[in-house]
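Anyone? Bumping this.
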Amino acid sequence: MVVVGIDLGGTQIKGGLVDEEKGIIKKMSNPTEVEKGNDRIVENIVKVIKALSNDTKIDAIGIGSPGSIDRDKGIIRFSPNFPNWRDFELTRLIKEKTKLDVFVENDANAFALGEWYFGKAKGLKDFIALTLGTGIGSGVVCNNTFLTGKDGLAPELGHIVVVPNGPICGCGNRGCVEATSSAKYIAKEAQNLLDRYPDSLVLKLAGSKEKIESKHVFQAYEKNDPLATIVANFSIDALARAIGAYVHAFNPEKIIIGGGLSRAGDALFIPLREMTKKYVMSSFVGTYTIEQSSLVEDAGILGAASAALYAEEKNF
Amino acid sequence: MVVVGIDLGGTQIKGGLVDEEKGIIKKMSNPTEVEKGNDRIVENIVKVIKALSNDTKIDAIGIGSPGSIDRDKGIIRFSPNFPNWRDFELTRLIKEKTKLDVFVENDANAFALGEWYFGKAKGLKDFIALTLGTGIGSGVVCNNTFLTGKDGLAPELGHIVVVPNGPICGCGNRGCVEATSSAKYIAKEAQNLLDRYPDSLVLKLAGSKEKIESKHVFQAYEKNDPLATIVANFSIDALARAIGAYVHAFNPEKIIIGGGLSRAGDALFIPLREMTKKYVMSSFVGTYTIEQSSLVEDAGILGAASAALYAEEKNF
């Protein structure tokens, strides 16, 4: 099967022509132009699709987008990237202009499907995929089934409470793992601690307080910087506790982590693997591995394409 | 389909002849006689099966047992009720004597299947079943799939950490929900607090410190007894946090709770429903209910029977 995968961002539309066997055949991107209104956004998406499918017969189109998605109806309930969209019928509009099957999926679920079709989860029946970025997204395959739950809301693994009465989360609760271990939290917490550690390497790496990002924290953490150690140890320990919960819930073969934070590499993965052991009961020891996603830059396109491949196979 | 369900306890073997449509047709029980050795135990199980199936053609036998079960191989790896059993080939032995298909399932998973076939989860595609007793057992159906994970170990929802650095759990970790909210913990914690609350109603209800059980704590909790309030609030809050995590992981339609502790009824369920709201993000509000199992005394037999029904349907 050959499909087009669209990674729909707030500033760029990234698209790829994707063959189920061979992966990405070609790719391109176009500005989203959110400020020019819905018609223009849709037009820009269609432009990318037409350019990619130009001389190829394609079977379907998959779109990955952040936000709350109703995959069955093909609508975007709301998305941080498109503040004007409320129950926006994205797939219907694209379908009208392309006469092709169009599927839309939450970017985190799309990431999981991308790992299943093209990444480290290929051929697995049980795995968890996490995107660690500004927030924490998740997708789960268990007993060879892609889990979505009663209302298509599952899984929201970023919103399990790991630090009772902990930091406030965007969702309104306290101590969700998204509030303790996302890139946003790590950067903010490092900024908050700067007054007490004015000589921190984190500040030197970032240049100024405002420019501190999670990557600077992990770079300094590798050099045993005290501020970075406090922040990273707290965040990684909380993430390890969350992963322990997921392991007990799903008994996965792999936990695959992507997103901006995963690029910290060994600085994140070595302590994370070690700390997770504390939170896993003995019968689960050795049953799982925690791995860095290998899809990198193409994760969004491959995820969106996989959403289309999966939907076509399942006959959604 | 008509099957025999065997609820294999350490002192009693409870059996039932179970019709897929009509439920339990007849039931009986026999002593297990663990002290008389393995041959006798197997003989006693077969006696119950033969007495029940006497004049009826049955399709299969299902056995529910506490402990670690390998459902594919039909062996009991180990069980608290049968200290001498290590990788005990229970199904092979019963099969030899009955010439029927025999399936064995962990009692918590069997409970979930029983709820699916005969209880409040009938017809549901997404639910969680919990047994709150000495320990906490769990079974999950998500996207109409009975989840077991890569090694058949899932789900172990009793062993997710809800109170970091909390009470020590039997599994070796600290602060698992089994260590904060099981009947065993509740009774022990009430005993521990008795020196500070020597006039507690809990003591009067139990008669003596040693006789305190979780039911006394919940009876006293309903009457606002201070000791009972401290113990119950802590345990229910921790359980609510765990259920919040499950809701985010699986997006279930119902969470069905059975086991000894569930008999506390409203004293448990009213505050539990209230406290769980705190730990669920807004998009999940109203998507689930928390309900008391209605299978009561027959949960074990119906669960075991359902394990056989499920296995036959799935062609295990």
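Late reply, but here is one note on the structure posted above: Chain B has two domains: 2-105, 120-294.
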